[in-house]
Amino acid sequence: MVNTSSTYVGRFAPSPTGPLHFGSLITAVASYCDAKAHAGQWLVRIEDTDIPRIFPGSEQHILSCIDAFEFEPDAEIIFQRDRLDLYHVVLEQLQQQGLTYACQCTRKMLGSNHIYAGTCRNLGLDFENNAIRLIVHDQLISFVDILQGPQSSNLYNDLGDFVLKRRDGIINYQLAVVVDDAMQGITHVVRGADLLDNTARQIYLGQCLKSPQLHYMHLPLAMNAQGQKLSKQNLAQALDLKHASTDLQHALQALGQAPVELDRPARMLTQAIAQWDHHLIPHGLTITGTYK
Ligand code: GLU
Q1: Could you tell me the fold of the domain covering 9-83+185-280?
Q2: 34: CA distance to ligand 1 center in Å?
Q3: pLDDT(175) > 70
Q4: What share of the chain is helix, strand, coil (3-state, %, to 5)?
Q5: In CATH, what is the architecture of 85-173?
Q6: pLDDT beyond 90 at 227
């Protein structure tokens, strides 16, 4: 058990775009054990703002997994779809501060160019029926990831002004995640390394909103036999609730932790928390193995 008197509030924030798979379990287990080993809290948030990408039944699967793996969230589970008004208030606030602008560029107009050139920045377009972008500056955003080490990015050169609300009205993940992390008092973000390059955007947006700086730990990704990360697109297997204990054992093994006796999940988690050591997590962006 890590001993610390400082506050720790962690979270697991899956998107219901497909059923949870072994990669999701690794994130859930690591975020849970790290929070509990610091005598912290662990919250669950369902990130369902991107309605067209929601996969039917996956939300229920997430909730069933939380139960079957006997994770104990420290607060009621929240759903981002219930918080849309809040995100709009924050958008309004950013607009009043002159930090955003409306953008009419379509995907087609942007083509394969991944760095937004700021085409609409000074056009003074109507905020109602357009996308909303956050203005970024030519400055380095740096942070030290607990596992991946020092990171830095210049959003102006690497990305350009980025979208907070899409033309179709959908609130972008970046906005929802930053607002909710701040509102829920999150202090530590433990998630997959596929989100590492979103972090500079989120730190910058957090700064615009005067949110406290968070600690980040990006976990290496479990790869399938073809060397691809587990995902719905790559046909990752949905977690089977009947195999919770063995899956838990495999997840802890993938995280490099000391072995835990096979038992009911709650007991296994208690043991895993007691012996949790994040230094043992394999370093790097991927975990070699053949996960499904
Ligand atoms: N909802 C995101 C996902 O499922 C994770 C967000 C986060 O942990 O910041 O990929």
Answers
A1: Rossmann fold (3.40.50)
A2: 17
A3: yes
A4: 35, 20, 45
A5: 3-Layer(aba) Sandwich (3.40)
A6: no
